[in-house]
């Protein structure tokens, strides 16, 4: 009999290739396939906007306000538990079991923090608009980074003037005299 060369033959081969081999686990084979795909495609770097350090931070939700207090009590009751995940799981279970009345004080605190955040954001947005209207665009780098760059550039680029003893005393960042 002649071997078939149609679609049926390729399906049998592909099905056999998909069957796990005794010495390999399915998970390892899947991981190897994923690695092959990633090696073919170059990694894409997403462009993220620079974060403004002056922007107010978002307020904690009611659950996180609760978790702050729960963490303290949990640590006192269970001093031997060091895992952060254990605290989070226990806190989540307790939060789910709490009634609406028990959650109310935490929700009130979260609402208060949210209103303060909204006030700060309004002030921040007004400041950003006024700076944009003035034509002032804030640099991506902080002033300390710019000052650091200035010092480095002064150190890296030697001046064309010979260094005299009077200039050594005036600037501690200048090059020491070199004997030739």
TrEMBL record:
Its main location: nucleus. PROSITE patterns: HMG_BOX_2 (PS50118). One of its GO terms (biological process) is chromatin organization. Residues 13-25 have a biased composition (Basic and acidic residues). One of its GO terms (cellular component) is chromatin. It is found in: Nucleus. Pfam families: HMG_box. Residues 56-125 bind DNA. CDD domains: HMG-box_AtHMGB1-like. One of its GO terms (molecular function) is chromatin binding. Residues 1-58, 124-180 are annotated as: Disordered. Residues 56-125 form the HMG box domain. InterPro entries: HMG_box_dom, HMG_box_dom_sf, HMGB_plant. Keywords: DNA-binding, Nucleus. Belongs to the HMGB family. PANTHER family: HIGH MOBILITY GROUP B PROTEIN 1 (PTHR46261:SF1), HIGH MOBILITY GROUP B PROTEIN 4-RELATED (PTHR46261). This is High mobility group B1. It comes from Actinidia rufa.
